[in-house]
Design goal:
Layout lengths: L4 H11 L10 H19 L7 H6 L4 E8 L1 E3 L2 E5 L4 E12 L11 E8 L5 H6 L10 E6 L2 E5 L10 E11 L19 H18 L4 H12 L1
Parallel strand pairs: 5-6
Antiparallel strand pairs: 1-8, 2-3, 3-7, 4-5, 4-8, 6-7
Helix pairs in contact: 1-5, 2-5, 5-6
Length: 224
Amino acid sequence: MITTVEGMYRYFLQLINKEQTHTINPATFNFLINTSNIDWVKSKLPMNEFNQVFIDDLQVLLVDGDISEGIDVADDFIFDIPEDYMHGINALFDVEIINSNCYSDGIKYKLSAILMKSDEKTVIKNSYYRQPKDSRLYYRYANNKIRLFTGKYSDTSESVGKKMYLDYYKLPRKIEYVFEGISTNSEFGPLQQQEIVERAVQMFLEKNRDPRYQSFLNEQAQKR
């Protein structure tokens, strides 16, 4: 069972059939394992809403309800994305209602919003049936920010986006193995660490065009 980064390192050496630690130095291993770590997380993200195993795998990266204050810019509102942000799940917004025909004026509501695709902005604004209003908010990611579109964007209200509550997956911790020093372990469990190491081995063998690469892939396929 792998529980430490040293265990990950030794499992890595075992899989590439290199018993002596000096054959792959820690610096090379650290680069490979962190590249694999990010790649492994990304491989889980596209289906995380539909696959309970993937949800469990990434549970340690989940951040619930991070709060950001809104900044009024022209017809929309901008919110900062956390520095450790990797993948968004859901966003709710505190909206102060002003001159709206959807809700009572002067009251703040916590409202959900629809994710706007990058190529939809003009179409949505010009469509009477799809344009933003206080009962149909939109948000989109742009330039490491989140932009919220209320009824103000379509001139149907003057409502203001005050706060954002963002659920997201954060970047995984950087793993570091230091020989005879202080190392940084992965936050994932033993089975997840094993998968990350095996992915790193694939990368290593492929990069070095090792003839064992295809046989290793076949071995991994038989495990699943």
